[in-house]
Amino acid sequence: MIPQIFILSIVLFLMAKAMPGDALTGLIDPSLDPDALAAMREKLGLNNPWYVQYWDWISNAAQGDLGNSFKYKMPVTELISQRVSNTLWLALATLILTYLIAIPLGIISGRYNDTFFDRIISGYTYIGFAMPLFIFGLLMLWFFGFYLGWFPTGGSVNPRATEGVGYVLSKIYHLLLPALSMALIGVVSTVQYLRNEIIDTKQKDFIITARAKGASESRVYNRHIFRNSLLPIAAFLGFEITGLIGGTVFIESIFAYPGMGQLFIQSIVGRDFSVVIAVALLFGIASIVGALISDIILNIVDPRIRIK
Amino acid sequence: MSEELLKIENLTTSFRIDDDYYAAVDDVSLTVRKNEILAIVGESGSGKSALAYSIMGLHTRARMEGRIYFGEQNLVGMPANQLNKLRGKDISMIFQDPLSALNPLMTVGRQIEEVILLHQPASGKAERKRQAIELLDKVGIPRPEVTYLQYPHELSGGMRQRIVIAIAIANGPKLLIADEPTTALDVTIQLQILDLIRELKNDMEAGIILITHDLGVVAEMADRVAVMYAGQIVEVADIYTLVTNAKHPYTRSLLNSIPTVNEVKSKLHVIQGIVPSLKNLPREGCRFAPRIPWIESEKHEAHPEMHEIAEGHFVRCTCYRHFYFPAHSEEDSEHVHS
Amino acid sequence: MSILEIKDLKVHYPIRGGIFRTVVDHVRAVDGVNMTIEAGQTYGLVGESGSGKTTMGRAVIGLNHISSGSIKFEGKEIGHIKGRSRFGRDIQMIFQDPYSSLNPKKRVGDIIAEPLRNFEKLSPQEEKKRVHELLEQVGLSPESFLKYPYQFSGGQRQRIGIARAIALRPKLIIADEPVSALDVSVQAQVLNFMREIQRELNLTFLFISHDLGIIRHMCDKIGIMYKGRYVEEGTANDIFESPQHIYTKRLIAAIPDIDPSHREQQVEFRRSVQEEYKEAHRRYFDENGLVYPLKPVSDTHFVALPQKG
């Protein structure tokens, strides 16, 4: 995991370096003397070889100093820490909604495969696969936010709610629509996976063994089929995180939700590269951690690959 | 010895393919007695496993006609909740592939305990554990307490099959159906498992239906044998009669087609043609006729019946009286004794 | 002339462990085996699961990496060449698992024709005729030509695999449990057929099986493997009439007897063999449970007997 993060950080750093211009371009008064600009570059270390610059950056980053945002004129670390909790809450809400929707749908679809309900659910998953998240997000925003006016159309909390239950409720209220939008699109892969897993498990020999033991159909399903099909889904959790990151970038921008995803887009547009690198690095680390979580969960739930 | 345990009368089990029903088990009548091993021999597609599944009520989408009397009760058409009281208790089953027959995510102990719990709902947790460990010991697991906590993938094939057997005998069944119980195992392990099954039969005085394609296993184990071909029983006899004095052309061909260690044949007998698929079963006349084309069609019965040609020896169709192996052809079976 | 000569073949797999996935030990799947197969003969390789017999076959055809030792095919060293392509049309394999060895997306006609297309220039009519002949030889109906593997039973699929392997009339065929998935009657058909083409084309077989009845029927020379090593090697008569190693004796005693009137004798015989096995186990196996190197007991018969004195 450490080497992966290391490689990721180098790649990100080089990509940022490869972008046209640097932190001073477009920020400095154009009438400034080019010699002074050169001196400033020298002072900031922008003329050093890339590995020296990288080393400066990574050793600072390791100490929690990711540099300054040129746009917001504040340390990146501080900027991110304001946003990161919003994104975490959004991700958590999305995950919870995803499983709340996916598990019942997957179970119905898998248990009663090729029936009317299964066809409806499968139809939904095909639409979900085909529908781009940003279009679906816009539709949700327009319909529930503007047309029906049931949900707020931006922000992460009502500025007037500052503390206590009101604050929490307001947070949840703002979360709900973006989280639901992401979940409704995100569930389709989990539903399909669970459905296939159940149909597959139904035909396994040990299910026949369970019936031959005299177990009732409901016991066969609850103790053997669902249990065995849900465990691989649990391991999906880590990979969901990766999917969520991509989702938040779109969804936060559409819903004007002040999280990392929105910050990411804004920073790219504003050429705020120190922020872009920092956010991308965090996203990358989250993905790697996600994969690790998947491995760990799989290790816990599946005795066949348990580390001795 | 002669007490009837299971009586199958005119059992037909059909599966729906497209818009028609096809009988995988066709008008089968059989009796299994207490404390006997009845072997059902046949190739794939003969219907032998379909017959076993019919007795167990494990076919989910099949049409079953006829009667299967287990004692006084008819298993055909029995509601699921009643059937579940018998399955795993009075009638149980051993499967071919012990790895896939066990739930990979449950410990051995829990899988055995499940069947105890289902039929002894009043038993406590500790009692079930005690029984499970006792069963593991009974089926010859060397360290029952250790294996109790293990998962199927941690055990060898032979050990897994012992677990499957432990589950099957947990509630002292009166009838045990073993569906190719040793096909997936090495020959020395096969011997151990067969010994175990024989031992358990003597212990429990249960009736055993042994389903296999392996005539060697049959010769070692069975008291009586029923030979199945294309969904029908073609010959029933005690094992000595079957090996020395088989009548039906199919049985005779089968016996001639296996290579054995004791007898080196220059050429094995080949049964012409192929086993017909369920959809292509001949619906009229002798089903084996297409595979012995040198026997004239008038030697076959129009509606082949089972004939009792000696006490307890039944043969289907009269063609057996006229059957011979064609000489100097593919079917040449000169024996070279070494 | 010997067509295949294997000297001190070892196939070891590393076992990795610990945090750094370093090699902590090796699985000695094949651990120093010598084998010579004469052209036109059938060499039977017998063993229980985990004996390394399958690994041997796969090593010869290049599907398994060789750790050390030499493999000579018609006098040429081929052990160092990587990959299957090394053998072209001369060595073919019949696989054990009829389910995974056929491409599910191809029609049976194409599967069987594939080696023909790679090595022989046939007109479409000739090719079709050849494929139909092959289908008939392995006992499949002509309609099979246009079907896909999933439409066949396990036994029928194996016959497709055999048709593919013999399409090019190779010199050596490695048959790994070729009939264990087949029904008895079909099994006989395939075994007879294998012997027929062997005579016709002077084929050599390396026949890997756990079924001693089939091995006896098919093979001229037999090698018995246990845990990657040879326990005993000899002619069919050597092995079946005078087995020397207790492992071999036990294996042969375990074969079901087709004559039910022998039951009592068999029980007695097996009990005595088992007694001997238990008693002599420490003499015949070293501290790791492995057998000793082979020693000749006659011109043809070699047994892994313990060092004496």
The helix-and-strand class of chain B reads alpha/beta
What CATH architecture label of the largest domain in chain A applies? Orthogonal Bundle
Number of β-strand runs of chain A? 2
Shape of chain A: elongated
What is the beta-strand fraction of chain B? 25-35%
CA-atom Rg of chain A in angstroms: 24 Å
Helical region count of chain A? 11
Structural class of chain A: mainly alpha
Strand order of the largest sheet of chain B: 6-7-8-3-9-10-13-12
Q: What is the percent of helical residues of chain B?
A: 25-40%
What characteristic shape of chain B results from the CA principal axes? Answer: globular
Separation of the first and last Cα atoms of chain B: 39 Å
Tally of separate domains of chain A: 2
Radius of gyration of chain B: 21 Å
What summary fits the major beta sheet of chain A?
A: 2 strands, antiparallel
Largest two-chain interface:
B-C, 41 and 44 residues
Structure, explained:
The complex is a heterotrimer of chains A (308), B (338) and C (309). Chain A has two domains: 62 residues, no CATH class; 229 residues, MetI-like (MetI-like fold), CATH 1.10.3720.10. Chain A contains eleven helices and two strands. In chain A, strand 1 and strand 2 form a beta hairpin. In chain A, helix 4 packs antiparallel against helix 9, helix 9 runs parallel beside helix 10 and helix 10 runs antiparallel to helix 11. Chain A is elongated and about 85 Å long. Helices cover 30% and strands 25% of the residues of chain B. In chain B, the strands form three sheets. Chain B has an eight-stranded mixed beta sheet with strand order 6-7-8-3-9-10-13-12, with helices on both faces. Chain B has a four-stranded antiparallel beta sheet with strand order 2-1-4-5. In chain B, helix 7 links the parallel strand 7 and strand 8. Chain B is globular. Chain C is globular, with a radius of gyration of 21 Å. Chain C has an eight-stranded mixed beta sheet with strand order 6-7-8-3-9-10-12-11, sandwiched between helices. Chain C has 309 residues and is α/β, with parallel strands linked by helices. Chain C has a domain of 142 residues: P-loop containing nucleotide triphosphate hydrolases (Rossmann fold). Chains in contact: A-B, B-C. At the B-C interface, helix 7, helix 8, helix 9, helix 10 and strand 11 of B face helix 5, helix 6, helix 7, helix 8 and helix 9 of C. Chain C: Keywords: ATP-binding, Nucleotide-binding, Transport.
